[in-house]
Amino acid sequence: MSPMPGRNPYRPGVGLTPVYLAGRSDELRRFRSMLRSAPEIPANVRVTGLRGVGKTVLLGEYEMIAAEEGWVTEMLELEHRHDTAEVMVDTVSALCERLRRQISRSARIRRKVGKAVEQVAKLEIGFDDVRLSFDPSADDDDIALAETIYATVATAVGHGKLGVILMFDEAQVLEDPASLSVLVAAVSTLQRSAVPVCLVVCGLPSLAARLLRARTYTERMFRGENVGSLDGEAARQALIRPLDGTGVTIADDLVDAVMRRIGGYPYFVQLWGAELWDAADQADVQHLSRDLLAVVEPDITRRLDTDFYEPRVRLLTPAEQDVLIATGTCPYPPIVVADVIAASPKSTGNINVLMGRIAAAGVLYRVRRGEYDYTAPGFHTFLQRRATR
């Protein structure tokens, strides 16, 4: 039989947009609706979820919607080095400066090719008339950052855009409340004056609590989008639809078997699909059958363990690794601290400190007092598998 045409249509990886984005239409519809109501109703979004659910992909879709609606965006993946108020001010200021240069450069290019800068009738804000009202508690960093963002929005609107959206991925790394506080306060100040700026923050489930510690009003400032696993039909379509137009078919019993293994997690859909495609390609067949699963499943497990799970163990100290491994012997879900204490020779105080450090490293997140969960789906099963080696 002739080789399968085309390239592998599945895209396992970090932030890679799948050929067919399944199960996220409601989130995209809500974001578009929010932008159309801004700036009168600020369009701030908090996106949270586990690893592998497609949060970064969703941010990319938000960027495309924003462009279609006439907004400009700037996105940054945050790192631990950003976790001070001073660094955040410098970082966001640099982002704004870069965005102003991009807007001005785009306008010059349009003029050179004879295209006038579009005039947007919807926006009814005169920047010469805006007077920013700062909270009495605002410090110099809050004020300086608000003025910097304001200048960027003015540039965007002056070149025919509706406004500016600042997007931050991996925002849970900002553990110091002051780091988030300075950003939230600056944007909130501008929004109270109807300045068209929006803030989108994305991260692990711990982000919601971090925002609340930074500024208590964030629960009212942000719309929360909790991105989870796909429901049954969406997960099936995520596996099946990328095959459209490839000449390759997939057996129903194979789809059923994959669904039982992946728990609806988008990254797992892409990984299983990619491995099945490659196996069929090597076998020179154009039908993905149930028999292929037995061939690829050991490789999938090894790939998950090596690339997805084990690096999370290795980034911890030996003492932290001991506690994490102990969680794999405890009843689950959730991870109950009392169970970990019973399973470990370490003291109660030591366990509590180490659990906090593991959470700070992004391997666990706190569900509630005394309870944690893993940030990567399937991690408990991995720890049990790891213990048998």
- CATH level-4 homologous superfamily of the largest domain: P-loop containing nucleotide triphosphate hydrolases
* Cα-to-Cα separation, first versus last residue: 40 Å
Q: Kindly report the spatial arrangement of strands forming the biggest sheet.
A: 2-3-4-1-5
Q: What gross morphology would you assign?
A: flat
Per CATH, the class of the largest domain reads: Alpha Beta
Total domain modules: 3
Architecture overview:
There is one protein chain. The protein is 52% helix and 11% strand. With 389 residues, it is of the alpha/beta class. It has 3 domains: 25-226, 3-Layer(aba) Sandwich (Rossmann fold); 232-308, Helicase, Ruva Protein, domain 3 (Orthogonal Bundle); 315-387, Winged helix-like DNA-binding domain superfamily/Winged helix DNA-binding domain (Arc Repressor Mutant, subunit A, Orthogonal Bundle), CATH 1.10.10. A 5-stranded parallel β-sheet has the order 2-3-4-1-5, with helices on both faces. Helix 3 (85-112) runs parallel beside helix 4. The chain is flat and about 65 Å long. Mean pLDDT is 92; it is low at 115-126.
